[in-house]
Amino acid sequence: MSMDTVKNASETPEVKQPYLDLGVKDDEYARIREILGRRPTNSELAMYSVMWSEHCSYKSSKVHLKQFGEKKPKSDAMLVGIGENAGVVDIGDGWAVTFKVESHNHPSFVEPYQGAATGVGGIVRDILSMGARPVAVMDPLRFGPADAKDTARVLPGIIAGVGGYGNCLGLPNIGGEVVFDPTYLGNPLVNALCVGTMRHEDIHLAKASGLGNRVILFGAATGGDGIGGVSVLASETFEDGGPAKRPSVQVGDPFMEKLLIECTLEVLHAGLVEGIQDLGGAGISCATSELASNGTGGMHVWLDRVPLRDHTLSPEEILMSESQERMCAIVPPQNVEKFMEICQKWDVVATDIGEVTDTGRLVIEWHGEIIVDVPPRTVAHDGPVYERPYHRPVWQDALQADSPSKLARPKTVSELRETILKMTAAPNLASKRWVTDQYDRYVLGNTVLSQPEDSGMVRVDETTGRGVAVSTDCNGRFAKLDPYNGAKLALAEAYRNVSVSGAVPLAVTNCLNFGSPEDPEVMWQFSEAVRGLADGCLEMNTPVTGGNVSFYNQTGDVAILPTPVVGVLGVIDDVERRTAMAWREDGDLIYLLGDTDDDLAGSEWAHEIHGHLGGLPPKIDLQKEMQLSQILVAASRDGLINAAHDVSEGGVMQTLIEMAIRSGIGARLWVPDNLDPFVFAYSESATRAVVVVPRSEETRFIEMCNARGFTNTRIGVVDSKLADEQVLSIDNVWHETLVLTLSELSKKHFETLPAIFGPTVG
Amino acid sequence: MSEISGARIGVVTFPGSLDDRDAARAVQIAGGTSVELWHGDANLHDVDAVILPGGFSYGDYLRCGAIARFAPVMEKLVVAANGGLPVFGICNGFQILCESHLLPGALIRNDHQHFVCRDQKLRIENNTSMWTKDFSVGQEIVVPLKNGEGGYIADEKTLDALEAEGRVIARYLDVNPNGSRRDIAGISNERGNVVGLMPHPEHAVDALTGPTTDGLPFFTSVLSSLLAGVK
Amino acid sequence: MARVVVDVRLKSEILDPQGRAVQGSLVRLGLGKVSNVRQGKQFVIDIDGELNDETLKKLHELAGNLLSNPVIEDYELRVENA
Amino acid sequence: MARVVVDVRLKSEILDPQGRAVQGSLVRLGLGKVSNVRQGKQFVIDIDGELNDETLKKLHELAGNLLSNPVIEDYELRVENA
Ligand SMILES: Nc1ncnc2c1ncn2[C@@H]1O[C@H](COP(=O)(O)OP(=O)(O)O)[C@@H](O)[C@H]1O
Ligand SMILES: [Mg+2]
User: Fold this and answer.
1) CB A65 less than 6 A from any atom of ligand 1
2) What is the pLDDT of residues A497-530, one digit of tens each?
3) Which helix (H) or strand (E) holds A456?
4) Contact status of B62 with chain C (Cβ, < 8 Å)
């Protein structure tokens, strides 16, 4: 079957092709034949199969994702929108920022280290291909229970992979998430986010324009990595069987990627490049068809010129290979020599593999024979679109009716004390230092905030201090209880985290991790989450700039919690005035902003103490969330607060404990008269934050809150002299005082992960 | 020697160097002028001192610093260092100095097997080297540490000699983050012009982006050493 | 006492960035004719007492999934009685 | 074509944290009687054409100061003609 040429395909219409094994359905195959007016060659079939897979074509999600465009808020900040490698937003002073999050879930389950490493590598190249210098990465992660055997297998490797790749590239890791839930056992989520910066004039797009321009492939040689990985791994569930495959594991070479970054930025800044595209999923198939369909319209490629690592690869395999650390540039002929010189300087192999034509066809030649001749749009953009059936799960009503009100709550000081110590050590609330200490947060010298702060913040302009802050969030339990509002809550939380740091939220990216789209109940969760996020972004005036969908995250019939991870990017005009979470000054006043209701459904308390999930998640009012944001940003700008920290998982108690541990200084706190001490401690009502106000600014601060009608409650005062050692002392706990020492809290907070995953330093 | 007010400190970029910009920034904050040096260019461009920055030169493949040692610029650097040129190797730079035999011993995988990034407390043990002059002996500082292969080892005889000659320039305090022998964080050569340090003082020169500004004296030290040399 | 040596090598189809880097250096340092370099790991394991079949079986098992990662690596095990 | 294999091992007096960690895991996973584990590196170098004395000499030189660090490591080189 090898060397199936176009000529051969025309002459042998009856040949049976293994399209089903490649994940191509009967009707899709029929459509390919209709488009081409003949049967596809094997190479063409390979291209269509991989480009029309769920992962590349978004065939199940497209009909829903279009809401992000339809409900797009009017924002002047959007410079490049959805549909490119990554969206680009204007942050002022001529600076533009691009950011995007992508999943590498299944590969990381199969080979944790390399799966996670190449996940980072892939998203960094997406950012690079916009013309931006990558400046930071983040890694929202989800695992099964912390003490589960398979978590012990995947977690250390995934962390080492994220770190190994990012550290070697010289990108600071400024944040992420580590969440444990039984539904992720067997389906860990590895989402990777990258932020890049550039001047407006440096924005580049993936298009092949200009008749006669050269198509240059540069970076690593092509091997058999992940052949069919995209379609086979991303579009079917985990069963093996099927045809023998080339290694489905891709190995990353971060050193090569570092060279590729420097080399790419140099050729871009030298003005040598017309269009540029990274090679990710679907490799050369994707890059050539996307570049061609977005440009002058045609391309001729000599595939046998592609440098190979493995000389036994067939042309079909070369087209599908997902070998890492490769880029493709469109270069005018007169610039080729200079382009090659720069590549040589960086020791990057570059090969002229084709040229831009105006034929409207993507033609690929292999040793003198034509093996592909297709309209590129049909490969890249006109894939199948499914209107998958969906319906509200039959169990949804029962789940929402199963409220946590019947769960036993602590009723005495000693019971609450015991609960606090247990919660402080809960894997989801405990310090993630075991993880983040394996990541370089300092490199590049622009990191202003990183873990464990609410958002990661980097300085963009060293002269003016302009910078950006990013946070990613999602409470999958809320999303399970109510996917529509769960998505809004995820957006609100990320928005709040950025605001807490003093930055103005500007734009959104997302990674939608769900179970199988073939399950109508999962599809309902997905459609509701997208609707919620699109409505939320419209209301908050933060456009979705891009994202990624990962389906089939399920084991058997059990899907993961619906996990629409939302990333919010904000801008701050001077990073000097950022707000961090640690209080410092004795006598500073501790205020809780926002209203506290009896919100324990889906809470960390219900999960950790009772293993319970049911009821309705906290209500979310995005108008109020925006008010809170304005207060936090204004307070930072006017110097009214010395510290701030958002309230989310683990409620106010967890927020205060984290602030105290970060500070190393104690505080005297009291429970407001109108609240039950337990509800005060562990309710997870949305739209709240704890702020620390110097006495001299108290009046101005309260006036600002009152002017907006925003609830503000004084709940304590920073005090390092309460006892011989540093303590949190809480008054009005059922008329008694509850005292916790920082040393006992720290012990609980820091010991959990090392006890499970083994000791490291400190 | 160029004018001291603007002493020219070269920062070498190898393929895979990562903290080169940070080192250059630290030089400038200290009052020097940073000069970019390129691994493939066998020329030190008349600089007054050289910094080998942190990173993963050549991906740290084979052994950290093993491949960088053979870069064209290193041939010149070894000769100049032996002639008294101040050279400071930070992290990967320290590894390169050991591989080049400008400093004794070697750096091996951390004893706990993980890459570690933390704010590390150090005690300065020597203020006679060209890079530690502006410290006082016994001074405690906190600077970032980030490495996967930072365990300093040498045979007992070498370790004893380093101690006896006062060539241990800094030691880890509170925790030994990588299993280094005798808590050694940094050493110098006999003459005191070549210094290697595992932690990263260049990330502690600005309170905005570092945990402290405790790293700055490494960079001012060389400027005052050069000045003293001229007088 | 018995000595068991386990060589672990990346499967030939898997990218070996380290090997490539070493190959580059060897060539740069004057070794002209290197066509390929692969870098692997070697474990030298000393076992107390005699090496019985059961221990050997266990060793193979551990070599196949602890010392090597079967997804990307192969191992070879040999006994060198000391 | 000739194949040259270079084994690089830490000198025996140098503490080997990786080997120690592996030893710990082997014992934890049920291999009772491990008295020592050392982890080394192995380079498999394919040379084009025949291996002459000069190339071999060069190989020894590079094995001794590029592939291994003589301060902490020893190497062993053997030729396996393919
Ligand atoms: N959940 C989503 N929300 C918004 N945009 C999305 C989402 N998923 C994918 N997209 C957009 O669709 C386009 C194609 O996505 P993808 O295939 O991941 O890009 P790439 O080919 O660069 O990896 C991108 O512009 C991406 O931002
Ligand atoms: Mg892309």
Assistant:
1) yes
2) 999 999 999 999 999 999 999 999 999 999 999 9
3) strand A456-459
4) yes
Residues of A in contact with B214 (CB under 8 A): none
C-alpha A575/C-alpha A466 separation (Å) is: 6
Structure tokens, B104: 């004794």
DSSP string, C4-35: EEEEEEE-TTS--HHHHHHHHHHHHTT-TTEE
Handedness of CA B216, B217, B219, B220 (dihedral sign): positive
Is the CB of A84 inside a 6 Å radius of any atom of ligand 1? yes
DSSP secondary structure of A307-338? -BSSTT--HHHHHH---SSEEEEEE-GGGHHH
What's the rounded Cα separation, in Å, for the pair A366 and B153?
55
Q: Do residues A104 and A118 make contact, with C-beta atoms less than 8 angstroms apart?
A: yes
Q: What is the mean pLDDT of residues A174-179?
A: 98
d(CA A314, CA A391): 44
List chains touching D (3+ CB pairs under 8 A).
B, C
Distance from chain centroid for Cα A579? 24
For chain A, the straight-line distance linking the first and the last C-alpha, in angstroms and rounded, comes to 60
Rounded Cα distance between A2 and A233, Å, is 24
The whole-number pLDDT of residue D82 equals 55
| Interface residue D15 vs chain C (CB under 8 A) | no
Hey, what are A383's tokens? 């894939």
Mean pLDDT on B27-35: 96
**HSE (CB half, 13 Å, CA atoms) of A265?**
17
* pLDDT tens-place string over residues A365-401: 999 999 999 999 999 988 999 999 999 999 999 999 9
Residue whose tokens read 């609960």: A419
pLDDT tens sequence across A210-241: 999 999 999 999 988 877 543 332 333 333 43
Least Cα distance to A688 among A717, A713, A719, A663 occurs for A713
Q: Of B58, B59, B70, which is closest to C29 when you measure between CB atoms?
A: B70
Q: What angle do CA A113, A114, A120 make, to 5 degrees?
A: 100
Q: How far is the CA of A336 from the centre of ligand 2 (A)?
A: 23
**Residues, CB-to-ion distance under 5 Å, ligand 2:** A 85, 126
- Which of the ligands is closest to the CA of residue A543? 1
- The catalytic residue positions of A are 55, 104
Q: Output the CA angle A291-A296-A297, nearest 5 degrees.
A: 70
Q: What DSSP string runs through B14-28?
A: -TTB-SHHHHHHHHH
Contacts of A540 (CB under 8 A, 6+ apart): A73, A491, A495, A505, A622, A625, A626
Ligand 1 centroid, distance to A82 Cα (angstroms):
7
Q: How far is the CA of A93 from the centre of ligand 2 (A)?
A: 27
Indicate the pLDDT class of residue A762, thresholds 50, 70 and 90: low
Alpha carbon distance A524, A522 (integer Å): 5
What is the bridge-based pairing of β-strands B49-52 and B8-13? parallel
SS3 label, residue B87? strand
Provide the token pair at A112.
Answer: 């944790």
